[in-house]
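REVIEWER CHECKLIST
Item 1: Sequence provided? yes
Item 2: Single chain? yes
Item 3: Sequence as submitted:
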Amino acid sequence: MNKMIGASLLTGALLVCGTTAANAQAKPTLGPYGYGAVRLGMTAKQAKATGDVVKKLKDGCSGWDLKKFPTPKNEVGFYISPKVGLAAIFAAKGMKTPEGIKIGSTGKQVKAAYRHLWKAFHGYYMTTVPGNKKAYYAFEIKHSKVVDYYIELKDQDCFN
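Item 4: Structure as written out by the authors:
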């Protein structure tokens, strides 16, 4: 899919492993509301206040990266719309959804994790994000493997 700048990044959340927060380990998880402190719907000011982001593009929907997951020069990790706030976050290699889907997962794994998939006009497989009715996941599957995915607000206005 043309993501305007061809973004391919995300951000991660902390998951608690074991019985105490002292055992917490960073696990890059995308969804259901964003990636760590970077959340869908945030304004640019709110995203910047997390200290986890870097602005890359300024026109229209602004393009940003997560500091821990920089993208190449002509790509971005997420977009912030002047109208709806943080509109979409693109997965980086190694990130996964709470359901365990990541780049490299099989199409069968995606279909097992998300039973209500449909193929959109742009060729990505879409599903409403479990736990967030205001967002979609979009998965690009080629040769039976996930090669790209992202989370977006249903009303995002940054790309088709």
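Item 5: Key structural point noted by reviewer: Confidence is low (pLDDT under 50) at residues 1-25.
Item 6: Recommendation: ____
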